[in-house]
Amino acid sequence: MSDPPVRLGQFTIAADHPALPGHFPGNPIVPGVVLLDQALSLIRSHTGGSARGLRVKFTAVVKAGETIEVSLTTQAPGPLGFSALRNGRTVMSGSLRLDPPT
Q1: Contact at 8 Å (CB) between 80 and 95?
Q2: What's the predicted TM-score (pTM) here?
Q3: 102 pLDDT band (50/70/90 cuts)?
């Protein structure tokens, strides 16, 4: 039996974020790299380590102002699994290994 996900926190990208105007004009969506950066920040805050061996899959478009919740879905030993959800639906998931804190 697997452990339940560990909720790390949530984030929202503001409509005035500098990455939005060019991605895409007239119908801005949050770039994947911005979503990933926010999720990794929450993971680092929780674990203290830095990510390596990152694998990620984006499964839905995220617009400015939407709240994204990040959770660890699997924990050590081995790769950590994570997910990012909007209203209970996955928008990004992946796995990574952590280097120990320095």
Answers
A1: yes
A2: 0.89
A3: low
